[in-house]
Amino acid sequence: MTSSNDDSNDTIWVYGYHGTSRSRADKIIAEGFQPSTNGYDWLGTGVYFWQDAPNHALHWAQKMYRHEPAVIKSRLRLDKTCLDLLDMADFENPDFWMNSYNGFTAIYQRIGAVLPTQNPDIPGKRYLDCAFFDYVKVSLSKQRSIGAIRSAFVEGKRIFPDSAIFDKTHVQIAIANVNLIEYSCIHQI
Fold first, then answer.
1. What angle, rounded to 10 degrees, do the helices at 127-140 and 96-111 form?
2. DSSP labels for 70-99?
3. What is the SS3 assignment for 3-19?
4. How many other C-beta atoms are found inside a 10 Å radius of the C-beta of residue 149?
5. Is the domain 12-187 a CATH 3.90.228 member?
6. Hey, what long-range contacts does 155-161 have (CB within 8 A, 24 or more apart)?
7. Which of 13, 52, 65 is nearest to 187 (CA)?
8. For residue 16, which of 34, 50, 144, 170 sits 20 to 30 Å off, Cα-Cα?
9. pTM, entire model
10. Are 146 and 140 in contact, with CB atoms under 8 Å apart?
């Protein structure tokens, strides 16, 4: 669900689905979300949601929490603090991503550190992406605060030979500012 008639033209509202265990879901509903700080999260630090995709969240929860899967449904506010890779109209500089990557790698070179890598053997372990997006949040902080990042992810298998469509493609949102989570409830499975 998307709508642009709430708050301003710069705000859209979407439903996000967060897969977890039942015990964690109860705690989240009672106490609120805590952003994940795993070094391998795709979009950097944040609370992760599948946009408008409760079945993706359920599948993940069943895989991770076999005996007590749960899904939380949340209404998310994506305002001008959202770095939205689905609608990059606010980035007039066509070189933004490459310039950001060059700045990111320059820091690692300057301090003599090894650049993080993705782990091709373990799906979802995106160390490089995570470090890069956390860098982008910091590097943009003088210009604007980044409260959320939204992106599409192509995953799975082609739906038929040579198709450009993959069966597990989805939109994920990482909410860094938990104040952008309007409300949450346990989604009935």
1. 100
2. EEEEEEEEE-TTEEETT-GGG---TTHHHH
3. ECCCCCCCCEEEEEEEE
4. 24
5. yes
6. 155/123
7. 52
8. 144
9. 0.89
10. yes
What are the average pLDDT values for consecutive 10-residue runs of the chain, which has 189 residues? 53 96 96 93 95 96 95 96 82 82 96 88 83 94 91 93 94 97 87
User: What's the order of all strands across the beta sheet hosting 181-187?
Assistant: 82-84, 148-153, 170-175, 47-51, 12-21, 69-78, 181-187
For residues 67-79, b (16+ Cβ closer than 10 Å) or e, as one string?
eebbbbbbbbbbb
Neighbours of 154 (CB within 10 A): 10
Amino acid in the structure at residue 168? K
Residue ranges of the domains in the chain? 12-187
Sign, CA torsion 115/118/121/122: positive
